[in-house]
Amino acid sequence: MTFIERALTGGRPDSIEDDVLLPRRQDYHHSPVDWRDEVLYFLLVDRFSDGLEKDRKLLDRSKLKAARPDIKGQPWSWQLWAESGGSRWQGGSLKGILSKLGYLKSLGITALWLSPVFRQRSHEDSYHGYGVQDFLEVDPRFGSRRDLTELVAAAHKAGLRIILDIIFNHSGCNWLYPQDTPGGIYEAAYTLDRYPFGSWRGIDGRPVQAISGCDDAVWPQELQDRERYTRAGSGDLGAGSIEEAWAEHKRSDFKSLRDFNLDSPGLLSDLARCYKYWIALTDCDGFRIDTLKHISFEQGRNFCGSIKEFAANLGKENFFLVGEIAGGDWAANRYLEALGRNLNAALDIGEMRQVLAGVAKGLAHPGAYFRGFSSDVALGSHRNLGNQHVSVLDDHDHVLGEKIRFSAYAASEAQVVAGVAMQLFTLGIPCIYYGTEQALAGPEDEERKWLPDWKASDRYLREAMFGPMHPRPGGVNSLDEQEDESMPGFGPFGTVGHHCFDPSFPIYRNIAAMAELRRAFPALRHGRQYLRQTALLEDGLEKFDFYGAGYEVARTAVLMCWWMRS
What we know:
This protein has 16 helices and 19 strands. The protein is α/β, with parallel strands linked by helices and 566 residues long. It has one domain (3-169, 261-527): TIM Barrel (Alpha-Beta Barrel), CATH 3.20.20. It has an eight-stranded parallel β-barrel, surrounded by four helices. A three-stranded antiparallel β-sheet has the order 8-9-10, with no helix packed on it. A two-stranded parallel sheet has the order 2-17.
């Protein structure tokens, strides 16, 4: 039995010293030479697929009201649909993703970025995955470590890569502050000092006197040292300069999530070992690093450097590390500069995402987007910048701007295609958000007035493509593979019981055709980029030139003109 098989057959390690760094394969999947050759696809595991779409009908978009039945004898409720989307697990799984590899490959995708798969607190409805309770285990609502390993292997066989989403800034809400703490036991008021430790939490979230099993507290054991948390309460996540190692936004809990004290001796190394375990075990190809802005430059550089070195020793010499850096484009560029070669790229989730959307909809001048790749920034030539930015049109947060998908108010399907064309045919590594190819947009405009917090809640960025009839129950009961029949599932376009994996949909077909064009011409991936008026079209829009390496020239005309009809 190989070590990998033995690791998957036995239980997960309790400690990162328990043979954690020993998983080894004879061969590991090599990294791409240049990540600009890839087309990324970001999905929320809980909201993508449960693998059971064959048991549901494809959604007929002309008959949406027919897919909104009575629930438990009660008329359709937008309040319940919204509540389901914001606070319940819907049932997506790793096996579901495995069942859709063909769908994704045909779309032109070459790398999948998965939302965090690590174990969450049993009683929490943190379907998004960012409140980790066990850093060495897969959440059972998603599947198992074997499911994840098999997904990576199948993806590699299909010519796809897998990027895991990781967090080393904080853990889940695995312990409570003392009862008399200002602000309360969950989100204490911020302090420049340190609060006393309250108590660990048990399987149901209540305080426990002692840790009695894997559902209590936090794992691995090394993270159960109380001094490894800042215990500073929840402060202003934008306060202080990113240059300050101990700024408020770096010491603060992320709301109720518990901030790690990365100055604690050995903690950064222990967290790095947790994630090295996943590289060695699963053979994944990269990490998206959550909340990197809340980590100091030195800590980020050391962590990323350690991961890079470990991966290189396995033959993954260009293991992909991309940072989520809120705070605008300047902050992202500053982290790229400070971390240097230890960080491949930053996600364009700040102003660049908003400008890209505006240009695609004709609401902003193209120059506003192209200036984001200016050659006079500290990072050097704009040609090199293309390898350091992941282009984003939509994501699960929208940290700036309204929290609705690009498609929600697109004038036409062609406008959605134009937005993705901007990603595929300009500098950067394109990342398509799940459901863009099906124009996920929430319910019809006339129904949106009934939705609580429309445009202000990230739930509307997170519809379940597979169309669950009902969500899982709340709390600990979500671990059971049953449905809460009193609530509707958070299906696409405000429906239930119908999926929208439609490879014949025009936007899907156009994205697939554009991805193939991008693959065929290296200039579209590696070339220099210039915005230059060469002619004035009848509709008043400009052309621009895109010059590639050597003598190859790719000229990309007005993106709004790209549209393939069935």
